[in-house]
Amino acid sequence: MIFLELFIGFLKVGFFAFGGAYGAIPLIRDVVLSYGWLDDEMMTYMIAVSESTPGPIMVNLATYVGSSQAGIIGSFIATFAVVIPSFFITILVSVLLKAVLKNPYVQAVLRGLKPCIIGIILATGAYMIFKNGFVMREGAMQIRPLLLTAALAAVYYGSRKMRKGGLTPIMLICIAAAAGVVVYGI
Q1: What mean pLDDT is reported for the chain?
Q2: Which of 18, 81, 136, 171 could join 167 in a cystine, given CB atoms 3.0 to 4.6 angstroms apart?
């Protein structure tokens, strides 16, 4: 039964995630929490780990959740389910691409989706910052996540002022990982 649930849950994610991995995080979160596979705190940690490991976030999360719920077979099933819709959609789009992209209605839909995806990504980031930054533990607000977020934002925007392209996403992830180890490891 768990194999079928993993397949259906991550097939939904694969079919309905639009806008890349960051746009898919709220959908993955809803599916994982609705099935009770992970709690909210563990999901936040897995997003961070999935972001800092090689590969797409959706695939990394599917593999982890599948493995934690049903072992190696579960990880294969969840990963397969999240990847297969993209595979078939990519093949279909590549066949129909030239004719479809010239259609003004399709162009209008895609232009309309861009602000929606940006909003989803910003809302997810804000949710994670507020969820982890304003958590009251032992009667005090956690200031370290907020300071770490502010410092990373300053590094990112400061690098854009100093260098033409700023930091690459990989460099920013490495800096964030090192800062997290320093701040939370000590």
Answers
A1: 83
A2: 171
Which of 18, 22, 53 shows the shortest CA–CA distance to 128? Answer: 22
Phi, psi of 128 (to 5 degrees): -65, -40
Q: State yes or no: pLDDT of 131 exceeds 80.
A: no
Distance set, CA 141 to CA 31, 123, 147, 180 (Å):
29, 21, 12, 18
**For 25-47, what is each residue's pLDDT tens digit?**
888 888 888 888 888 888 888 88
Residues 6 or more apart whose Cβ sits within 8 Å of residue 19: 113, 116, 117, 120, 121
Q: What is the dihedral of CA 35, 132, 23, 149, to 10 degrees?
A: -160
Q: Where are the domains of the chain?
A: 2-105
